[in-house]
Amino acid sequence: MKFGIFDHMDRGTVPLGAQYESRLKLIEAYDAGGFHAYHLAEHHATPLGMAPSPSVFLGAVAQRTGRLRFGPLVYTLPLYHPLRVYEEICMLDHMSGGRLELGVGRGAVPHEIEHYSIAPSEGQARYFETYEILMRAFAGRTLNHTGTFYSFRDVPLEIAPVQKPHPPLWYGVSQPEATVWAAQNRLNVVVNGPTAMVRGIVERYRSEWAQASRAAAQIPFMAMNRHIVIAESDKEAKTIAERAYKIWRGNFLSLWQRHGTTPPNISALYGDTFEELQARGQGFAGSADTVRGALEQQVRETGVNYLMCRFAFGDLSFDESHRSVAQFVTRVMPALIELRQAAE
């Protein structure tokens, strides 16, 4: 059982420079606390993502940590020139001594794609072509490709990643059918959704892995993503969580509302309030004992081997987030590790 961090880096209530520095201090605490990796979202033209260039922020993460792995979740590949993103991946892997985790995706918000003068209808095709080019680049020292959107002829690749053939890959899934491609390509997966959705995807992934006659011990990470707030009492934690979640949800919906639209899957992903989120099993606010008990039950029910935590969102202060992290590391994490070890 491993533990990671997911961060939208949505807009808080302090100046942006202060928010970046506060987050880097929190990331130092993740590093010291034994978390496996820090995963940073990419969003554009929206307060949901104040780190629209993940590579820039992750370059700072590389210098402020010594053990923690990190990476984008995800690089929105349709928005990148393949050669440029390949070179950024290699640089970050070297700057961190081989600690990069590589999340890839096509982007979940069509308005963000449009703002880059790309038709959303092209998103999936651009994603798959860029992904194919990246895999070719990782496999050799010269890049050749002829496709719909890009062509390369004998392009020399003077840089390669530390990790061979490439950093570990991550992919977000919301349907069990999507695990087929992920399992075939040995991708780590993360699920944003209620307990039943997570369980269905984990079970399908394990089935696809077994059908390919691969060793169960070598199965990639199957993660679920959860908002978590820990305080001295359940009441205090819930009050803090409701306040911060309201701001986070406003940031989440902001770009959609600006265009007069609604996320097609909002009802399947998030509740209107933190109380609703918690009732769906997607958020936990309470004392360390309360959160530990709820997470133990959910880990048993879903079969995940990786828990991705959101300790910083909305207007949570550094002290509030840091307290959650400290309590999680000392009073929650050990019990979940023991639970998974016993199950195996």
Explain how this protein is built.
By secondary structure, the chain is of the alpha/beta class. The chain has one domain: Luciferase-like domain (TIM Barrel), CATH 3.20.20. The protein is 48% helix and 17% strand. Strands 1, 2, 3, 4, 5, 8, 9, 10, 11 and 12 form a ten-stranded parallel sheet that branches. It is globular.
Brief characterization of the structure:
The protein contains 13 helices and 12 strands. The protein is of the alpha/beta class and 344 residues long.
Number of domains: 1
Look at the helices and sheets and give the structural class: alpha/beta
Radius of gyration (Å): 20 Å
What's the story with the biggest beta sheet?
Answer: 10 strands, parallel
Low-confidence stretches: none
CATH fold-level name: TIM Barrel
Helix content: 40-55%
The backbone outline, from C-alpha atoms, is globular
How many distinct beta strands? 12
What is the distance, rounded to the nearest whole angstrom, between the alpha carbons of the first and last residues?
A: 10 Å
The proportion of residues in beta strands is: 15-25%
Tell me, rounded to a whole number, the average pLDDT.
95
Order of helices and strands: EHEHEEHEHHEEEHEHEHHHEHEHH
Number of helical segments with 4 or more residues: 13
**CATH classification, class level:** Alpha Beta
Under the CATH scheme, the architecture is Alpha-Beta Barrel
- By CATH, the superfamily comes out as Luciferase-like domain
